[in-house]
Amino acid sequence: MRPLLFLLFLVAPFGSSAKKKKRKDISLFSSWGYNRAFFSKSAIHFMGEEYDFTLKNTIAKDRQSPLSVKNYLNITNLTIPQYNFCLGILLPNNLSFTIGQDHMKYVVSAYSTAVLNGYTHIHDEFEGDYNNQEIVITPDFLQYEHTDGLNYVHASLNKEKQVLISKNRKASLAVNIGIHGGVVIPRSDITLMHFARNNKFHLAGYGLGLNAGIKSVFLRYCFFKLDNKMGYINMPDILTRGIGYTDRAKQAFTFIEFYYSFGVQYPL
Length: 268
Hints:
This protein is mainly beta. The protein has 2 helices and 15 strands. The chain has one domain: Lipocalin. 5% of the residues lie in helices and 62% in strands. It has an 8-stranded antiparallel β-barrel with strand order 2-6-7-10-11-13-14-15. The protein starts with a helix and ends with a strand.
């Protein structure tokens, strides 16, 4: 609720609607903020020389960093929480183009249930053939996280419409809608059965989708944004086992991301 109260405070001094006039200037801008993400259930397919199986209907959540001065205001820890960063240019006709990174975190819920189909031939307690068998995902079988993180590096094209502007033109309110697409470069912390992990940064797949939000400009050069991003992520090449192995996992899911950000813009 606090971001909404802050936004209402910024909008309060506005006394007139924005004129329907095309913007002629060009501005550069950048922003930094934090997100909350929600993920659909997904099927994760694990492949190796000794096993080939799929976990269906897996449940995953994000992982929020505790709210503290250390996590959110200490400059050395700014990249620990789930953050959003972008650089962009505002073009004539209120079009904007941005490049950025959404650092989300994806954690398969421990002790949740999933449906297992396939086989493992690794001569331990997990060996067997499974035919759509419901199981509980215990830590000794699987720990599966993209927590450093689910890094979505993307470009977006947006259309902005100004709806309110202050009399001195130093504050305004606008809405925007756009499309986004890019690559996913996770650092995955995955422990599958008793195998060693391989948590290198790795190009695992791609994402795309839609976004919409509101933007409040104040003091002419500063702004605050509330955004919603919806999308699809497909990762066919996820590292799962120690260096030197070709074992992989693949999965696809949809996501909804809510985030707020602060930024600065500078007209050229």
